[in-house]
From TrEMBL:
<keyword id="KW-0808">Transferase</keyword>
<keyword id="KW-0012">Acyltransferase</keyword>
<dbReference type="InterPro" id="IPR051504">
    <property type="entry name" value="Plant_metabolite_acyltrans"/>
</dbReference>
<dbReference type="InterPro" id="IPR023213">
    <property type="entry name" value="CAT-like_dom_sf"/>
</dbReference>
<protein>
    <recommendedName>
        <fullName>Phenolic glucoside malonyltransferase 1-like</fullName>
    </recommendedName>
</protein>
<dbReference type="GO" id="GO:0016747">
    <property type="term" value="F:acyltransferase activity, transferring groups other than amino-acyl groups"/>
</dbReference>
<dbReference type="Pfam" id="PF02458">
    <property type="entry name" value="Transferase"/>
</dbReference>
Amino acid sequence: MDRSSKSLMESIISPIEVVEECQIAPCCDSPESATKFSLPLTFFDIIWLKFNPSERVYFYQPTESSSSPEFFYRVILPKLKQSLSVTLCHFLPLAGRLTWPSHASKPSIHYVPNDTVSLTVAESDADFNRLSSNDIRDTIESRPYVPELQIADSTSPVIALQITLFPDSGYSIGYSTHHATLDGRSITLFMKAWAHICREPESDLPQELTPSFDRTVVKDPEGLDMVYSNHWIEISKTLAPDTDPRSVKPFPGESITKSKLFRATFVLTGEDIKRLRDWVLSIETIVDQLRLSSFVLTYAYTLVCIVESMGEEKVSWVHFIFASDCRTRLDSHSIPKNYFGNCIYGYDGFVDAKALMDKNGVILMAKKISELVKEANCCGLEGAKEALEKWTSGKPKTLTIGIAGSPRFELYEVDFGWGRPKKVEVISIDKNRGIAMERSRDGDGGIEVGVVLEKHEMEVFASLFVNGLKELHY
């Protein structure tokens, strides 16, 4: 590699300069903040213990007068820091640590007074518009804008945050969270609460943005918390024999720097989804058994395009999985919408990849996903004891595709006072090649889809995805 190529690669991999590493403490006088406490994990948390951290970045492009470095350091950054400190008073467990001591049967979150959240402040000379676009680019380019969660064997922060200034262009807010501590709805609740307090510092936090940490609302008569804890202990002895089996470290994902993966965002507009639904209904006769929601259609269409882009030589079976929010769906009892932690359960199935490459592959996939959605809407936990064992053992040449995010989160409503995000992106799908979903910023009922593939696969996928939608409009 010549010097110019090496310099270009270094600028892509590390285009940021760290300005400040700081610790943000909760700023409040509540009795809880002065008292240490422990928050036990439930089976909804423990099932995700060894999954990779969840990482997301919000890109903001304020008005020209608000995007200068002087305004950022004088106004925006101080307000973000101060409102974060106040917000943490309502979300004290975020300042705590996930631990699994050798004497404990399962992990828990521990908070002690003066615990803090790590916040990195950085500057970047990278192309803000490129990073916040839907364009195809190397996954390495987006990595610098989410902080690394410093996870040790027996302990981990719950969250780490990073604010990055792109001088005269905009700024980003990225986070990394341990998957066993909170789910997408919970982290979105925190981000919306932080934005609200930053935007309206004199107002009280609305009830719908105030978290509930009551673990007694999660019933576990079958002892799934211990089933999952023991499963991770046993599988760790095989997959990570050199570590403590009670380690809270996730199992390694794909090697980001060696796998040559690329990311891009594609959009299904509201009109695209309507036409896709009409097409399915024009062919499928048993329509009363299908739930052709925007989620089902988007997942089915995207997954089929991915399988076709990879080809039969790589994929024989497709293992599809998505997580359903169980807060208001459990048969036995209800859990508040503002419950903070994990309250999601995964639903999955297998399908022959060759069948998806048929001209009606999207319809077949929509049927399969629709069947799972019916089960998820009741939040049935049948087979829960064997779930982890099934997820961690697969067939040869199996492509596992899961969903990160949800169109229901409305991430583009997270406004700190200088406008809505220009782009929100799930970074962590580069470790498992999942699909990210979010409601379109345009508000037309469409859905943004983030995918990660090898370069030639991405090129084929883009052609299939775009041209397939064009055909629906003729």
